[in-house]
Specification:
Oligomer: single chain
CATH superfamily: Immunoglobulins
Largest sheet: 5 strands, mixed
Helix content: under 10%
Number of strands: 8
Radius of gyration: 14 Å
Number of domains: 1
C-alpha cells in the first residue's frame, strides 16, 4: 500500500470541542473527476505504534467539489491524532490524505 500523504492541515482543539478538518484532493484528481465515496478514520500517533483512536470520533464527513471536510470530536489532552480520509473517485482512483488534530488542555 502506498504511503498516506499528510496534508498541511492541522487543527488544534480541546477534548470537549468539535473541529473541522478540510482536505483538498484537487491536485491529485483530473479535471472533471468527482468524489464518489469517502471513508475516514482517526488514529493515535505514537513514536513506535499507530493505533486506531477510539477516543477521537469522526462525527461526519461532507464532500464539496474535490474537497472533503471531516468533523471530529473527543481526544485526550496533549495527544496528537491523524485523521485519514480515503476517497474513491469517478476515475476511478482510490486516494488518501490525512490531517492532524492536536488536543490541548481544556
Amino acid at each position: 500500500m502506498a504511503e498516506i500523504r499528510t496534508a498541511t492541515t492541522t487543527a488544534d482543539k480541546t477534548p470537549t470541542e468539535e473541529t473541522d478538518i478540510t482536505l483538498n484532493f484537487a491536485a491529485r484528481m483530473v479535471t472533471g473527476e468527482t468524489i464518489a465515496s469517502v471513508d475516514s478514520a482517526a488514529v493515535k500517533l505514537d513514536e513506535a505504534v499507530v493505533t486506531v483512536a477510539p477516543d477521537v470520533v469522526v462525527e461526519s464527513t461532507s464532500i464539496s467539489g474535490q474537497t472533503v471536510t471531516v468533523l471530529v470530536s473527543g481526544g485526550v489532552a496533549k495527544e496528537t491524532y491523524k485523521v485519514i480520509v480515503t476517497i474513491t473517485t469517478s476515475g476511478p482512483q482510490i486516494l488518501q490524505l490525512a490531517g492532524r488534530v492536536r488536543v490541548d488542555n481544556a
